[in-house]
């Protein structure tokens, strides 16, 4: 047996990073995100397809709490969907909206290009950075507080969010160095080395330089915001290790990280529970964001 990464041969490593192989019916979860998002859009007032860039995918949806006015300064929760960098979209990212707007916050879901249309992870990360900079510059026109932007991301969206945290904002976008106040990252990937060595690289086409350039663990900010990292009990051993290792790095560097395991949940169910304001993830997120 030839080991490819740590104690994994090629087949075992591929299995660790194949979330669809971990569940009987992965389509059921994809469909549930979309159906719940349709319900949220029907129930919560929102502004759809706001452009933050020039490309068709560079759009975001802004969901508004009841009674908000443009003169308000409400907290803002920004969500980045998962999908292995190739699936899901803005239309399937609305499902947690009511959970947050019911607490008086704005909820913003960000759209971005998926692979292979995006060409590279660099392009996807750049889009997320542009969207967050746009929100810092413009969200007060919708009643949000740009000094209370909170970021949530799931799976590949957690990876993109973690990369955004390490951005040189003044240099790239001309805004202050820490536009995001706190973050909750769920079932994410923070070191791309095993991803590069797995079957996923057929799509991502990472070389060693791209792996390093796009790994959050190697692109930490100068100062770190409070970071909550979560994963499911039934995430794979590698996803759990990634969460543990990134929490340890963040805690060692900044002293303000925490990690929770969501009992009884698989990779897809972790973020799905945000539709329930009483779920452990929802309650932890409310506390972390102070909302």
Attribute tags:
291 residues; alpha/beta; Rossmann fold; eight-stranded mixed β-sheet; two-stranded antiparallel sheet; 12 helices; 20% strand
Helical content stands at: 25-40%
At the fourth CATH level, what is the homologous superfamily? Answer: Alpha/Beta hydrolase fold, catalytic domain
* Main sheet attributes: strand count, strand direction, barrel closure: 8 strands, mixed
Number of structurally distinct domains: 1
Radius of gyration: 18 Å
Order of helices and strands: EEHHEEEHEHEHHEHHHEHEHH
Structural class: alpha/beta
Q: Mind explaining what this structure looks like?
A:
The chain contains 12 helices and 10 strands. With 291 residues, it is an alpha/beta fold. The strands form 2 sheets. Strands 3-4-6-5-7-8-9-10 form an 8-stranded mixed beta sheet, with helices on both faces. Strands 1-2 form a two-stranded antiparallel sheet. Helix 4 crosses helix 5 (156-165).
Strand and helix map with partners:
Layout: E1 3-5, E2 8-9, H1 10-16, H2 26-43, E3 46-51, E4 59-63, E5 74-80, H3 97-101, E6 106-110, H4 121-138, E7 144-154, H5 156-165, H6 169-173, E8 180-186, H7 193-196, H8 201-204, H9 208-213, E9 227-232, H10 237-254, E10 257-262, H11 267-272, H12 280-289
Parallel strand pairs: 5-6, 5-7, 7-8, 8-9, 9-10
Antiparallel strand pairs: 1-2, 3-4, 4-6
Helix pairs in contact: 4-5
Summarize the structure.
The protein contains twelve helices and ten strands.
């Amino acid at each position: 047996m030839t080991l490819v990464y740590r104690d994994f041969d090629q087949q075992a490593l591929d299995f660790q990073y194949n979330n669809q192989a971990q569940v009987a019916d992965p389509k059921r979860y994809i469909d549930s995100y979309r159906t719940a998002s349709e319900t949220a859009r029907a129930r919560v007032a929102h502004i759809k397809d706001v452009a933050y860039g020039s490309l068709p995918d560079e759009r975001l949806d802004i969901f508004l709490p009841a009674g908000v006015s443009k003169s308000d300064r409400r907290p803002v929760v920004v969500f980045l969907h998962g999908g292995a960098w190739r699936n899901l979209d803005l239309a399937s990212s609305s499902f947690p909206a009511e959970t947050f707007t019911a607490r008086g916050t704005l909820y913003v879901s960000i759209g971005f290009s998926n692979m292979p249309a995006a060409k590279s992870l660099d392009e996807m990360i750049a889009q997320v950075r542009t969207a967050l900079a746009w929100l810092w510059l413009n969200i007060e026109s919708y009643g949000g507080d740009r000094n209370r932007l909170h970021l949530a991301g799931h799976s590949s969206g957690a990876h993109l969010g973690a990369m955004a945290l390490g951005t040189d904002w003044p240099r790239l976008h001309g805004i202050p160095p820490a536009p995001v106040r706190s973050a909750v990252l769920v079932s994410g990937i923070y070191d791309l080395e095993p991803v590069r060595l797995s079957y996923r690289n057929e799509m991502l086409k990472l070389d060693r330089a791209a792996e390093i350039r796009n790994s959050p663990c190697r692109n930490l900010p100068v100062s770190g915001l409070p970071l909550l990292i979560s994963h499911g009990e039934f995430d794979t051993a590698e996803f759990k290790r990634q969460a543990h290792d990134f929490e340890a790095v963040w805690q060692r560097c900044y002293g303000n990280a925490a990690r929770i395991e969501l009992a009884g949940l698989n990779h897809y169910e972790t973020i799905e529970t945000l539709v329930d304001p009483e779920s452990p993830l929802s309650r932890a997120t409310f506390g972390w964001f102070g909302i």
